[in-house]
């Protein structure tokens, strides 16, 4: 018998690694991954000294409990009422005693329970931001006759300085300023 007849045919596998590598690259390039979205908020710079005490009237206390019910200044409200309350607080300019002295001193204290749903937390946060956007748009229209988004960079900075967004999610003591 011939030794060649007993040997099985050989398959050239040298290109298999190249094909597997090309498939891997193809799937990496064509696959899309969902990116988690968060809240865009710029943190304030670190301050070496203790901040000045905050007057209680300048702080609007907002609390979202475990049942996703909203409380502002110890009164239960509906989500639809929050934007108007925040707007009144930041645009008060010392007129009403129970709201902020000025827009630059106004602070929104946002607290929530650990069992609060993320969607409800975002809804509250968005309503607060919407109140600031409304105040900024109103000032932009009054001063420049345009919407805030269409203003120049310098004009936007002027309005942002007049209505700085101050949302505190930290526990603090009004007397100590922290």
Instruction: Determine the CATH topology of the domain at 56-133.
Output: Nucleotidyltransferase, domain 5
CATH class of the domain at 56-133: Alpha Beta
Distance between the termini: 96 Å
CATH architecture of the domain at 56-133: 2-Layer Sandwich
Query: So what's the overall shape?
Result: elongated
Over the alpha carbons, how many angstroms does the gyration radius reach?
29 Å
The low-pLDDT segments are 172-178
Number of strands: 5
Average pLDDT, to the nearest integer? 84
Helix content: 25-40%
> How many individual helices?
5
Give helix and strand order, one letter per element, not per position.
HHEEEHEHHE
* Spatial strand arrangement across the major sheet: 3-2-1-4-5
Structural class: alpha/beta
| Percent in strands | 5-15%
User: Biggest β-sheet, characterized?
Assistant: 5 strands, mixed
């Amino acid at each position: 018998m011939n030794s060649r007849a007993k040997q099985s045919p050989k398959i050239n596998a040298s290109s298999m690694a190249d094909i597997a590598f090309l498939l891997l690259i193809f799937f990496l390039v064509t696959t899309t991954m969902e990116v988690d979205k968060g809240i865009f908020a710029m943190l304030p710079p670190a301050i070496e000294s203790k901040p000045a005490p905050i007057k209680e009237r300048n702080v609007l206390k907002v609390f979202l409990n475990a049942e996703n019910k909203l409380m502002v200044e110890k009164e239960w409200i509906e989500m639809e009422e929050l934007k108007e309350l925040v707007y009144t607080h930041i645009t008060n300019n010392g007129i009403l005693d129970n709201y902020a002295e000025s827009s630059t001193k106004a602070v929104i204290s946002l607290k929530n329970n650990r069992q609060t749903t993320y969607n409800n937390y975002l809804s509250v946060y968005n309503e607060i931001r919407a109140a600031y956007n409304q105040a900024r748009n109103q000032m932009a229209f009054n001063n420049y006759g345009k919407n805030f988004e269409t203003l120049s960079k310098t004009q936007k900075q002027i309005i942002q300085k007049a209505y700085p967004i101050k949302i505190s999610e930290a526990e603090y003591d009004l007397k100590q300023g922290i």
